[in-house]
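[step 3/7] inverse_fold.run input=structure_tokens len=228
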């Protein structure tokens, strides 16, 4: 089943006006946190540049020590979503294993961040039919900055990787937590001003879908990279 268009005439008229004015929208997302050192560095940059983002968090990292990081993200308008319990790929897991991983992570987010996740990003972007059947969240992909362990990319290279895939409605996939060296803060100092110069406005994932007048169907069995 494909995504359903929200019958919202006012929103549709706003979209037409935005197109005429050259306004474009994107959602900046981060994976693999929270971390008490690295995630705050990303939050600092978001606040410096006056934008919001969405964080896909790993259940194993959510605890009393990282709760203030999640609370800060929520307080500045960011969203917290589900990236499974660990870093393990889930495409070979049983239905029971998948449900346990997602359920534990959702409960940890609710307990420590005080919010309920609305989207899911598969670890390593690997999916299976069993995952689509077992997980009741829309699956989120993204334009890759190639910024994880082993990529050995500089901040400038990460920016170029993202810019090559940009268009209106794009979802950007970066990592707030990866092994050092990991120049995510420097990447943001280059990427955010450049995208603003190109006419992009940064929204959370929920805001992006609302802005585009689309309700993502959890049963659609697709990965969202662009919302259009």
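[step 3/7] decode complete -> sequence:
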């Amino acid at each position: 089943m494909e995504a359903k268009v929200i019958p919202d005439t006012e929103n549709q008229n706003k979209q037409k006006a935005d197109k005429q004015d050259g306004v474009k929208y994107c959602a900046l997302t981060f994976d693999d946190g929270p971390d008490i050192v690295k995630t705050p560095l990303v939050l600092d940059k978001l606040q410096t540049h006056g934008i919001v983002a969405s964080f896909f968090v790993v259940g194993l990292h959510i605890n009393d020590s990282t709760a203030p990081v999640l609370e800060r993200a929520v307080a500045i308008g960011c969203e917290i979503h589900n990236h499974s319990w660990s870093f393990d790929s889930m495409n070979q897991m049983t239905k029971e294993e998948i449900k346990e991983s997602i359920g534990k992570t959702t409960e940890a987010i609710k307990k420590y961040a005080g919010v309920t996740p609305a989207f899911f990003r598969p670890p390593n972007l690997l999916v299976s039919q069993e995952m689509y059947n077992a997980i009741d969240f829309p699956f989120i992909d993204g334009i890759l900055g190639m910024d994880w362990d082993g990529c050995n990319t500089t901040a400038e290279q990460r920016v170029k990787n993202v810019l090559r895939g940009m268009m209106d409605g794009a979802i950007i996939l970066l990592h707030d937590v990866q092994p050092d060296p990991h120049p995510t803060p420097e990447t943001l100092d280059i990427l955010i001003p450049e995208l603003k110069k190109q006419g992009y406005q940064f929204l959370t994932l929920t805001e992006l879908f609302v802005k585009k007048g689309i309700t993502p169907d959890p049963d659609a069995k697709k990965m969202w990279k662009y919302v259009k």
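[step 4/7] annotate
Residues 92 and 128 are 8 Å apart (CA to CA).
Residues 1-17 have pLDDT under 50 and may be disordered.
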